[in-house]
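User: Modeling request: complex.
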Amino acid sequence: MKSKALVLLSGGQDSTTCLYWAMNKFEHVMALSIDYGQRHHIELESAKKIAHIAKVNHEIFATSIFTDIGDSALVGNGDISASHKSSKDLPSSFVPGRNILFLTVAGALAYKKGITNIVTGTCQTDFSGYHDCRDNTIKSLQVTLSLGLGKDIIIHTPLMWLTKKETVDLAISLPGCGEALAYSHTCYEGQRPPCGKCPACKLREKGFKEAGVEDPLLRLK
Amino acid sequence: MKSKALVLLSGGQDSTTCLYWAMNKFEHVMALSIDYGQRHHIELESAKKIAHIAKVNHEIFATSIFTDIGDSALVGNGDISASHKSSKDLPSSFVPGRNILFLTVAGALAYKKGITNIVTGTCQTDFSGYHDCRDNTIKSLQVTLSLGLGKDIIIHTPLMWLTKKETVDLAISLPGCGEALAYSHTCYEGQRPPCGKCPACKLREKGFKEAGVEDPLLRLK
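Assistant: Request completed. Predicted assembly structure:
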């Protein structure tokens, strides 16, 4: 397929897999990362390293808007101040709609660059209260962006219905992806080598174990 | 109606009218402005002044993301660099999807504050290539945000089908709005008192003239 794609690259396992999926499918690929004040800066460092290995152009846009939204919600200012906590499963610092915002920024950049295809690693299989990772949200957003940009945009979500094992299977089948995964970041604790104990490390470990593959990340230990 | 609303306030005539429309309709109202590197800083100063007069809480969030997108599109970087100019009517510095981005930020803030209603002055009547001001885009976005936030959000667009004359009629009917309009900013040239010659000044003048009302802004001259 002779066409261009923009991949949202967080530096994690899923978006790294998506980058290589896109490189396998599209003729020209670029990556976009958003620096929104991630808990660990190592995620962006991973994204940089992976884009470098993959030899794709990489843009990093910074925004403090999530911090602003979080701060505003925590600060009391009259009748309108009440912080709203809609789910007992989500932390109060959680800012909803993050994926919508990222994909809208990706859509605007794609439009300016003449790119039709956006690729994101959002996945409903490990949905845990993040409604903007759900398939219905993404499909609705594709319609919204296409209407709002006045030009058709396609949001590809190759991992939407895959288990972690299936994502590993996919990654291993993509040339070069295994090597890049050695630099992807997953650990919630921001550790490298990973702590191996946090829920994110455990989920990653389970996927590789079920796929019967050694995690390239662990070779660095 | 006992409920809360968040108004996107640019500091212009339309969003000022929307602010007073919301104050007339909802029990609690707050305003949000986005500092995205407007050509003239006087717009944000107007927004501040108007929120102060209206006695509503006012948040200003800054983001450089539009500058980043614009710069990225202008910089050559390999095969993916070509700046895409889809319409001869829009300047190359134009970043599409701005309203989608603003409303998504508004949606996230509204969610955190327990607010269901968002009010914006977007208007299809003076549509001129900005697809994200169109009614279809806004209605699709309402669905996207409601899905993505996991909670119903209503985007109110009281000016969507009004002519400039009808917007003036509405503004004059809302208590206090006339006074506030004296501080609203419209002039493309960033002048105050307004230049009276640019397309924006001319359009505003036409609306007030057709409504048979003196523009409060001109009393300041």
